Amino acid sequence: MRRMLFVPWEEGDGRSVPPVDEVGGKGRGLYWLAANSFPVPPTWVLSTMAFDMVVERAGLMDDIVEIGRAIAEIGDDWAAAQQALEGLEPRRARVVDALRQAAMPDRVGAALSDLPLAPAQWAVRSSATVEDAPQHTFAGQFLSLLSVPKGMRVWDGVRRVWASNFGREPLMYCAQNRVSLPRMAVILQPMEPITARDRSGVAFSHSPVETLPGVLIQAAFGTGQVVVGGYGGDLYSVQGERVQVQPMPPAQIRVTDPEGDTVPRSSPSGLTLTEREARELAGLVLAVAKRWGRPVNVEFVWRAGGEPELVQVRSAGQF
After folding, report:
1. 136-141 long-range contacts, Cβ below 8 Å, gap at least 24?
2. Looking at the structure, do residues 175 and 243 belong to the same domain, yes or no?
3. What are the tens digits of pLDDT across the range 258-314?
4. How many CB atoms are located within 10 Å of the residue 8 CB?
5. Is 277 in the same domain as 226?
6. Residue among 203, 263, 247, 253 nearest 231 (CA)
7. What is the spatial distance between Cα 219 and Cα 227, in angstroms, rounded to a whole number?
8. Domain range spanning residue 154?
9. Average pLDDT over every residue of 173-200
């Protein structure tokens, strides 16, 4: 199959789920959810082909090949690994700076111009070829941005996500886990501003916490950045009709700023989800796990007055 520069998903279009090498691990998970009729936001992916094109035009291949070779040779010795990364720093910084300032190729510009014009803001999310793999998820290693204003701000967001492929932390993670240097696709999803009435979080189909069995949900008001970042969120253990709640409100949540991007706000009082909502979400997550064929964790967004949407799925890992 010919690789595509821009990969949209339209419900019922009959296409098979695109490969990880094309849309990255996170992107493939989203397309799998859509293909299996689970609720996901409208999604487009700027494929790894665009990343490869920009890398080649910027003359970065030699630097990237050398970074990949050096990463592959780093052993288990922590001090030696740090020293090796220090030696790579000039090349790494050169690649990051070049990607952050890359000119937009005409083909990429044409692809981005196909995005719908109505949405004022977008989620611009990483989807590296190593993300959400069963062995190593790379959770939190790459950059994702929310509430990015449309236009050139989206292009700047794409470049920042590409550059995060060569951050020091992902490179060390690759070295420690014997993972080859990845390539980066970028997920683009239109989004309405996120308010303090919206809810976001993560859910595990099989709780990794013994004292909170069943489906484990952690949810906070606003964006999911608070929960994913480990800053808190109410815990819900759901076993059939039984819901056990452990309130853990974060000190602050994040919501959309009027000018775009997200800003901190005080967390509203009260629990994030009702028991009925927790049971509904648990049922959805269990259905995903059954179709996936093994335990999963998912990230979700539940807009005020709406229904839950899933924005990420991976095989279950550690809490």
Report:
1. 136/173, 136/177, 136/179, 137/314, 137/317, 138/25, 138/170, 138/173, 138/182, 139/228, 139/317, 140/228, 140/229, 141/167, 141/169, 141/170, 141/173
2. no
3. 888 999 999 999 999 999 999 999 999 999 999 999 999 999 999 999 999 999 999
4. 16
5. yes
6. 253
7. 7
8. 6-190
9. 94
- Where do runs of H (alpha helix) occur along 36-151? 48-57, 61-73, 78-100, 106-113
Residue 1 in any domain: the answer is no
Structure confidence by residue, pLDDT tens digits, 41-82: 999 999 999 999 999 999 999 999 999 998 888 877 777 778
| pLDDT of 239 over the 70 cut | yes
- Token output for 147: 């509430």
DSSP single-letter state for residue 95? H
- Which element (helix H / strand E) includes 273? none
Euclidean distance between CA atoms 63 and 98, whole angstroms: 11
Four-residue CA torsion sign, 215, 218, 221, 226: negative
Cβ neighbourhood burial of 313 (10 Å; 0-12, 13-18, 19+):
buried
Number of domains in the chain: 2
> Which of 140, 173, 190 delimits the end of a domain?
190
Rounded Cα distance, 81 and 72, in Å: 11
Please say if the pLDDT value at position 10 is more than 50: yes
**CA angle centred on 312, ends 307 and 315, rounded to 5°:** 125
- Regarding whether 31 and 146 lie in a shared domain, the answer is yes
